[in-house]
Design a protein that fits this description.
This protein has 63 residues and is mostly helical. The chain contains 3 helices and no strands. The mean pLDDT is 95.
Length: 63
């Protein structure tokens, strides 16, 4: 997910997307702990996407 895809969304949409990604991150961490996650780099990508969304939310609220 690129920042360009995120910047045009509204704050409520961003919060919904962040909640969904947080749940996905939680599930990925659980799977990784029991050895079922096929690609552990997925955890890093999810964290980065959540950080991008947080940045977009802060930029929109600061306006």
């Amino acid at each position: 997910m690129k920042f360009v895809e995120i910047k045009d969304l509204s704050v409520t949409e961003l919060k919904k997307k962040r909640a969904a990604l947080s749940e996905e991150l939680f599930q990925a961490r659980i799977k990784n702990s029991i050895g079922q996650l096929s690609n552990p780099i997925e955890i890093r990508d999810l964290r980065k996407n959540i950080a991008r969304i947080n940045t977009a939310i802060v930029k929109k609220v600061a306006r």
